């Protein structure tokens, strides 16, 4: 089972900086082929309490979240990661959970670090991650540096816009993933 994950953070790396929100949407299933899911049907979203005093104001501003509100009302990371792990296990059932993200390197870095740090294990294993940027580059036959959303054919792009709200963006990425999985590559006709 593929889970589209988007993370908002107040800096570039976990530890010194904090994951401040996470959105997850079920993107689809693989049973010998790919079946997309309605990404709005099964979701998880949490805003988290920061883990350090350090933050980069410009990074925090991207999400539009208020640090003081997060410090007061955000979920403790251990609670949020335990809930997420339980939700993923229950949702995936007997399927193997795999993260999809664009670009996965950022979201996976925070997600994996937080799961290990606050639960001791990753429900996605150590490598259950698929990068949509690489998937597009491979199918399109372009360099990774050319695998940017604005250069993708319009029929691949998702209808929802990128808002920097973690759940909105997880839903957006799930639609992009479904479009990429259905695409035969290199052609602009869908």
Question: What do these coordinates show?
Answer:
With 190 residues, the chain is of the alpha/beta class. It has one domain: Nucleotidyltransferase, domain 5 (2-Layer Sandwich). The protein has helices at residues 57-63, 67-73, 77-92, 104-119, 132-140, 166-182, and strands at residues 2-9, 19-30, 34-36, 43-47, 98-101, 129-131. Strands 1, 2, 3, 4, 5 and 6 form a 6-stranded mixed beta sheet that branches. Strand 5 (98-101), helix 4 (104-119) and strand 6 form a beta-alpha-beta unit. Helix 3 (77-92) crosses helix 4 (104-119) and helix 5 (132-140) runs parallel beside helix 6. The model has no long low-confidence stretch (mean pLDDT 95).
- For the record, the CATH architecture stands as 2-Layer Sandwich
- Briefly note the structural class of the backbone: alpha/beta
Let me know the largest β-sheet: 6 strands, mixed
Radius of gyration: 16 Å
Please identify the oligomeric state.
Answer: single chain
Q: Provide the residue-averaged pLDDT.
A: 95
CATH homologous superfamily, by name?
Ribonuclease H-like superfamily/Ribonuclease H
Report the uncertain regions. none
CATH fold-level topology: Nucleotidyltransferase, domain 5
Number of helices: 6
Number of domains: 1
Global morphology: globular
- The CATH class is Alpha Beta
**Beta content:** 15-25%
**N-C termini distance:** 24 Å
Order of helices and strands: EEEEHHHEHEHH
């Amino acid at each position: 089972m593929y889970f589209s994950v988007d993370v908002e953070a107040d800096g570039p790396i976990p530890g010194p900086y904090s994951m401040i929100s996470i959105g997850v949407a079920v993107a689809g299933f693989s049973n010998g082929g790919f079946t997309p899911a309605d990404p709005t049907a099964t979701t998880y979203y949490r805003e988290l309490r920061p883990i350090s005093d350090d933050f980069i104001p410009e990074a925090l501003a991207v999400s539009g979240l208020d640090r003081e509100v997060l410090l007061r009302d955000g979920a403790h990371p251990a609670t949020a990661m335990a809930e997420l792990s339980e939700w993923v296990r229950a949702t995936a059932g007997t399927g193997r959970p795999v993260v999809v993200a664009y670009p996965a390197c950022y979201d996976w870095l925070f997600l994996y670090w937080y799961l290990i740090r606050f639960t001791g294990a990753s429900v996605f294993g150590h490598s259950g991650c698929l990068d949509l940027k690489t998937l597009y580059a491979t199918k399109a036959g372009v360099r990774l540096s050319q695998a940017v959303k604005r250069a993708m054919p319009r029929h691949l792009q998702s209808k929802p816009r990128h808002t920097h709200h973690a759940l909105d963006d997880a839903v957006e990425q799930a639609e992009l993933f479904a479009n990429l999985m259905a695409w035969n590559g290199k052609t602009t006709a869908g």
